[in-house]
Write a structure and sequence with these properties.
There is one protein chain. This protein is mainly alpha-helical and 143 residues long. Helices cover 66% and strands 7% of the residues. The chain is built from 6 helices and 2 strands; from the N terminus they run ααααββαα. The two termini are 24 Å apart.
């Protein structure tokens, strides 16, 4: 239970704002076919830059069969491709396609809009303070 009930309400409101902005990104017909789970996988693939299936499973805390299933769907939808490792012929890397890069641009623009909205509500000193506090919170997240 949260010690400060107003913090819970703030988190709820920010979550709702983020969900609204994210849904606008998914309103783009090119990417409407992605589920939230597929988006999570795609964002992780883009962030890890050419992971193999084991890397992705470890990063997401899921099994390799789960990764295989979702990556298979992303391949069929044209977001990623599977490329055999040049040194270890048994391993495959997951590479984003141009379609994934386009999605990433739209998704990043959504995050920028949210950051710009938040910054517009604060003065520069408050923005710095918010960034510092949120960074401190994120230090507690294991990644």
């Amino acid at each position: 239970m949260t010690k400060n009930p107003s913090l819970e309400k703030i988190v709820e409101a920010i979550s709702a704002l983020m969900a609204e902005m994210e849904s606008q990104a998914f309103a783009d017909e090119r990417f409407a076919e992605l589920s939230m789970r597929q988006t999570l996988y795609l964002n992780t693939i883009l962030r890890l830059e050419h992971p193999n299936f084991s890397d992705l499973a470890r990063e997401l805390g899921v099994t390799k069969p789960s990764v295989t299933a979702i990556v298979g769907t992303l391949i069929r939808k044209g977001y990623v491709e599977k490329v055999q490792d040049g040194e270890d012929r048994r391993a495959y890397h997951i590479l984003p396609t141009r379609k994934a890069e386009e999605f990433n641009k739209v998704h990043a623009a959504t995050h920028k809009r949210l950051a710009d909205f938040l910054a517009a509500q604060l003065n520069p000193g408050e923005v710095d303070q918010l960034v510092g506090l949120l960074d401190k919170v994120l230090q507690g997240v294991k990644h």
